[in-house]
């Protein structure tokens, strides 16, 4: 048993800094991460703005990884949501609808993908999510994700764009007996001044953490190396 490299990355539906949507760059970006488990947010499937491309399938084909997509809402003739890529076996998975306290025109439903993953000799329960931009609602959604993920066997790994600062995320996660990365700013891309992307663990130790600028997306990708606490390298 050993270490697993994981990453979370808000891809902004394959949009470049120049403002063009370049689906073909997404596979390259995912491959550059060198991760065995990749959580993607703001992923389009067959929408007009992304040229009718299934971005999850494209990334999976380019990297040779297994994948699943979790739709949050319909958009421009297709769907929009989160995705999970795994270099290994992707077992049972589900898409969980997160709490929504109000409805208004253009409101974005938030979801989480939960999956059983076997990679790099390790078996994990993984969650991928993108929480609401309204802090009070995002806090409720974070608690909901942890509650459903913890019902699966550990170790647990939750990654995503939480739209919340460490001052909120760290105590909320620690209250559940889990651990959250904090301190690396990931947004906006070139001059980040906010920590809103996280790797949250239970039964895993984060051995290293860094960010990457990639050819698509308006966030820096967050990349971590995690090791099960029962590993001989502990």
Automatic annotation (TrEMBL):
<dbReference type="GO" id="GO:0016020">
    <property type="term" value="C:membrane"/>
</dbReference>
<feature type="domain" description="Endonuclease/exonuclease/phosphatase">
    <location>
        <begin position="7"/>
        <end position="219"/>
    </location>
</feature>
<protein>
    <submittedName>
        <fullName>Metal-dependent hydrolase, endonuclease/exonuclease/phosphatase family</fullName>
    </submittedName>
</protein>
<keyword id="KW-0540">Nuclease</keyword>
<keyword id="KW-0378">Hydrolase</keyword>
<dbReference type="GO" id="GO:0004527">
    <property type="term" value="F:exonuclease activity"/>
</dbReference>
<dbReference type="InterPro" id="IPR036691">
    <property type="entry name" value="Endo/exonu/phosph_ase_sf"/>
</dbReference>
<dbReference type="GO" id="GO:0004519">
    <property type="term" value="F:endonuclease activity"/>
</dbReference>
<keyword id="KW-0269">Exonuclease</keyword>
<dbReference type="GO" id="GO:0006506">
    <property type="term" value="P:GPI anchor biosynthetic process"/>
</dbReference>
<dbReference type="InterPro" id="IPR005135">
    <property type="entry name" value="Endo/exonuclease/phosphatase"/>
</dbReference>
<dbReference type="Pfam" id="PF03372">
    <property type="entry name" value="Exo_endo_phos"/>
</dbReference>
<keyword id="KW-0255">Endonuclease</keyword>
<dbReference type="InterPro" id="IPR051916">
    <property type="entry name" value="GPI-anchor_lipid_remodeler"/>
</dbReference>
């Amino acid at each position: 048993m050993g270490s697993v490299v994981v990453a979370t990355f808000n891809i902004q539906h394959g949009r470049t800094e120049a403002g063009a949507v370049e689906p073909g760059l997404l596979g390259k970006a995912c491959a550059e991460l060198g991760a065995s488990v990749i959580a993607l947010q703001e992923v389009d499937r067959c929408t007009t703005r992304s040229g009718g491309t299934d971005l999850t399938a494209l990334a999976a084909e380019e990297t040779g990884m297994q994948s699943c997509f979790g739709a949050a809402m319909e958009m421009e003739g297709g769907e929009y949501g989160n995705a999970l890529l795994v270099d290994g076996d992707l077992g049972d998975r589900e898409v969980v609808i997160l709490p929504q306290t109000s409805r208004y025109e253009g409101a974005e439903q938030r979801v989480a993908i939960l999956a059983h993953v076997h990679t790099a000799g390790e078996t994990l329960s993984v969650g991928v999510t993108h929480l609401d931009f309204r802090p009070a609602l995002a806090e409720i959604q974070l608690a909901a994700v942890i509650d459903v993920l913890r019902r699966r066997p550990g170790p647990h790994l939750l990654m995503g764009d939480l739209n919340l600062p460490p001052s909120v995320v760290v105590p909320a996660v620690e209250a559940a007996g889990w651990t959250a990365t904090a301190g690396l700013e990931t947004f906006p891309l070139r001059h980040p001044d906010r920590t809103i992307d996280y790797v949250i663990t239970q039964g895993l130790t984060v051995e290293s953490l860094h960010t990457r600028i990639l050819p698509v997306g308006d966030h820096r990708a967050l990349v971590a190396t995690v090791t099960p606490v029962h590993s001989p390298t502990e």
